[in-house]
Amino acid sequence: MLILASVSITAVFGDNGILELAKEAGEKTNEAVQGDKENIGNMTNYIKSLSWDASKVTPVTTKDGALVPVPKGFVGSGVDGENTIKDGFVIYEGENPVTNENLEQAKTTRNQFVWVPADGVSLEYKQDKETFKVGSWMYDGFDWSEDEDINVRKDSVATYGGFYVGRYEAGIEESIGYKNGDDYNRSETNKNDTSGTPVSKKGRQAWNFVTQPTAETLSKNMYKGNIMSRLIDSYAWDTICTWISNDNGIESILDCSSWGNCFTSEKYRAEGLYAIHDFSGSELEAIAGKYNEDDNEFNISPHIEGDIRKCYELFTGISERNKKNNIYDFAGNMYEWTTEKSMRSHVYDQPGFDGYLAIYRGISFMDNGSVGGKISSLFGEDARVNISFRIVLYI
């Protein structure tokens, strides 16, 4: 009887037991369902490609067999890890091919965007008011307006099966010339400056101290013609969150400490410039004296000294740790403005106030919390050291 009992227990609970086999079968079923969705999505995109505007895009087949519309004036990456839908298909501005040999130069000198495959089957282009609903009153408690061309963007996604997102936070081109020890030179005096053109390149200071309307204008001015460049909206932000969580697990979105740059980040190495800010919770601005670059093994280590937080503002894309689906710094470094805004609710009225609230998303280098769920608002005319923006492209 004891022998039979032990055999029965092993048969149920062992490595090759009934429960383990059932678990494996369930996992394989889920993988098969996801694979079927991806195959259907690829077929859907192929059918859609028949109506793509050949004057605007070139159909390109990715290494994993998907068809992607590459805008004229850009090329798809030929580098392993950048040429599949699953990893995040990267395009580079310019006509020259991008290979392993010229990759690092291309990352620092050419604008880059990542294809988000919102084909309507495996991934939908939509606001997600459930999965990422931390602070969901921001969605439901106000009449958040949508800008004038939201329907144009929705039609573009429906036609082309997705959109492109800036691989990096919007950067300041001139900052490529900053050096270790230079004085920190950003402040609120920059907040309404629309004279420059933002870039999506590695190794630039994120364009902070910017108001929401200025971020919108800068985004629209980046590209004109065959493609529309726009400030990211909540549809794109939530779609990216869903895409990353589908590929990497929901925990990859809800915790910035292990893959993003926030105050609760684990110690890690970054290769490039950053600024250390002294920040107390009672102050609205962090103070940084100089730009830094060093060779310490773990040079990024947010911590508290007395009642002061030591926080690290990174230049764009300088840590491979802070990347998912080939998008850098989505989890932290800077909060990012979106297009949503609302006149202030009567509950919060103040005498003489005639401004509006605007939404920013994500998490910043000075804070801690979830990434996908973080939905916050601020007066749109405000500008902070820890708020930047990210640009998206529509065809």
Task: Name the features.
about 400 residues, alpha+beta, 6-stranded antiparallel sheet, 4-stranded antiparallel sheet, 8 helices, about 25% helix, globular, disordered N terminus
Give the SSE map:
Blueprint: H1 2-13, H2 18-49, E1 57-61, E2 67-71, E3 74-76, E4 90-93, H3 103-109, E5 112-116, H4 137-140, H5 150-160, E6 163-166, E7 171-172, E8 205-206, H6 212-222, E9 228-231, H7 234-248, H8 251-254, E10 274-279, E11 291-292, E12 303-305, E13 308-314, E14 323-324, E15 327-328, E16 335-343, E17 356-361, E18 375-379, E19 387-388, E20 391-394
Parallel strand pairs: 16-19
Antiparallel strand pairs: 1-2, 3-4, 4-5, 5-6, 6-20, 7-8, 9-20, 10-11, 10-13, 12-13, 14-15, 16-17, 17-18
Walk me through what this model shows.
- The protein has 395 residues and is an alpha+beta fold.
- The protein has a domain at 168-222 and 232-394.
- The protein has eight helices and 20 strands.
- The chain has a six-stranded antiparallel sheet with strand order 3-4-5-6-20-9.
H/E order of the elements?
Answer: HHEEEEHEHHEEEHEHHEEEEEEEEEEE
By DSSP (H or I, 4+ residues per run), the number of helices equals 8
Q: What is the CA-CA span between the terminal residues?
A: 71 Å
- The general outline is globular
Whole-number mean pLDDT: 84
Short description:
The chain is built from eight helices and 20 strands.
